[in-house]
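Dear support,

We are seeing what looks like truncated structure output for some complexes. This example has two components. We would appreciate it if you could run it in full and send us the complete token output so we can diff it against ours.
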Amino acid sequence: EAQVTQNPRYLITVTGKKLTVTCSQNMNHEYMSWYRQDPGLGLRQIYYSMNVEVTDKGDVPEGYKVSRKEKRNFPLILESPSPNQTSLYFCASSGGPGRAGYTFGSGTRLTVV
Amino acid sequence: AQKITQTQPGMFVQEKEAVTLDCTYDTSDQSYGLFWYKQPSSGEMIFLIYQGSYDEQNATEGRYSLNFQKARKSANLVISASQLGDSAMYFCAMRGIIQGAQKLVFGQGTRLTINP
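Here is the complete output from our reference environment:
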């Protein structure tokens, strides 16, 4: 089954404790993105990647890091999480522009206390 | 820059009625795609329908249709014969085809509630 798998689904952590949210896709997609969803703000892009070793900042990159060492994986790293990073996070992938939309993972609900 | 505006934070509709969710957009790109996603209370993002800027006909997918008015820069989602399972958050989004292909730009969403 074609899918984007992100883990964990739920995470509660403390301020300053480094964490990684994993994302993997099995569709050989070039484009991958991370979004965060906050009430009233819709989904905002954190980082994106257009291929292996090619990553760039989205609209809200502060406090996050990413890497794309393999085509299928695109982890999101929070080096020192803060309470304002409490949010619902989505990883998404796409095979290209045009009619190809983005396939989303199931989401990770992160709470930083 | 691309921008999506959804002006209806919430809508309440009786079951079996048709419902229209509004979406307007702004872009300087000539080639772009418009998407609608559904987010039920479980949280996942479900793709519903796509409209390309050069598509001559409005897109349809089962009970979903997209009322695309390019000159007005609007891309409203129409759900016919609404069902209780349609209760969810709905997001309009756009993506450039030549430029801006690296991201989807989302609106703030509309929460649709279907009443029995």
